[in-house]
Prior knowledge:
39% helix
Amino acid sequence: MPDEIISYEPATGAVLWRQPIGDVDAEIACARAGWSSWASKPLAFRIETMRRFANIVRQRNDAFTDLIARETGKPIWEARGEVETVIAKVDISVSAYADRTAQRRLEATMGSRIAVRHKPHGVLAVLGPYNFPAHLPNGHIVPALIAGNAVVFKPSEKTPAVGALLVECFRAAGVPAECIRLVIGGPNEGKALAAHPDIDGLLFTGSASTGLALNRAFADKPEKILALEMGGNNPIVVWDTPDLHTAAILVIQSAFTTAGQRCTAARRLIVDTKLYEPLIATVDKMVGRIIVGEPHANPAPFMGPVIDNEAAGQLTDSFLELLKRGGRPIRHLERPVEDMPFLKPALIDVTDIADRPDIELFGPILQVIRVDDFDAAIAEANNTRYGLSASLISQTPALYDRFWANIRAGIVNWNKPTNGASSGAPFGGIGWSGNHRPSAYYAADYCAYPVVSSESESARASIGIGLADG
């Protein structure tokens, strides 16, 4: 068993960071001992601490951006955007907490009142992914801390350095060290954290396979909150649009931003047969112009590598499997640098595959499906166990109305990419994409629970029926 976690730069293979594996029991015990003092602080104090956190991240923007770029391989421009979302999350979470968990008072009988307030759960575990190693865990941590919880955070073993810097910024802002704990480790530590009896809930972003395992593990733990965000096999439908150039841009942004490593990335392009040839020709030509390179390259790349060689190998195997099943390659998945995880975007027509695999290909592979009518397009878009994101490119409002009404997804877009969801709105899906605990603006919902109180300043009571004469 390894006794440390080593982080490598995907673009170079160089060792970036290393640290011993953490002690899950010790980190949870520390959080358990300290959370009540943080919960007892006034809400205004916790909010002010989060605002200091945002300022500290802002001050360290360049260093944070560089670290994200090096550890994930994503281009500098994209890493900088991630840091900006970390900063913006504070104001969004403050507004969300006020909106979603506001105190309420209702008048009741005999001069009493009904009060609705919210309490934190206690100690919440957060498991972070590697594709947005700062933004996505931060989207759980900030609302959890505002609500008064302590957090035990395990970043992905593929991006631990970014997770460590995120925790460092929280502590520098004044979050008590015992209330924001860091667990460095791999899958074993993640399992130990999720199964620990002293956590009050788990907030998870990651793969469907892990999310389903967590859902089963929590089935006999109704006392613990479980929030799952598990990705998608997302469709983008192109229909009756005269502007194929813009449609192609939206398809490429949906499928290949972050090297396809977004849970909202388009995995399936569903297109009207009449538009197929001109649209695919336009998309293919534009894909051929995409620059794939290391984060700091000049000119700036659109895509960096995928996270590591293991992921690149799995994607290559998946592409070959689609070919074996009858897929027709439009643009092959190429690996331009041997033994490095750079991949060039791939397009493959899978229309003639009878039993298409319903899996999330977490990388730059776009499957293309031809259909003859709009009902078939909707049926094909819904032909998945997932339900995170879907987009329609069309100039006809009535078609979007039909699309919106019939698509099974938590994010349904019109003439916009499938990805790039706003943090000022709820974020989540149905089916294998989540368990009805949307994050982003609605994260406040799972970070605190409502308490209803019937209150009166003096005790008054009577029993008018059912007592014998005394």
